[in-house]
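Support reply, case 0932

Customer input (verbatim):
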Amino acid sequence: MKTVNTNDLLQAQEPANKIELLLKISGKTSDNLKMAVAAHLVDGMAKPMVHMIFNISQQQLDKALADLNQLHSDVIALHNNMNL
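Our regenerated output:
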């Protein structure tokens, strides 16, 4: 059974402004990739559809999602450390 990190970004569960900010901080520059990530995390589009519509590979999407999850966890950790 896969362990779920409570800081993970979830499909169709994220507000658009949060994803836009994380993408901005991440330095991702590909418009197709940014739209694909938002379509998945904000709108809930399934990964196979994201690949077809935005013309990105599964590896590109998975890497972007992993990077954003790590960035999200780092931001939460920084926030928590500042509030100690």
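We compared this against your earlier run and they match. Two observations from our side: The chain has a mean pLDDT of 92. The helical segments are 16-26, 31-41, 47-54, 58-82. Please reopen the case if you see a mismatch on your end.
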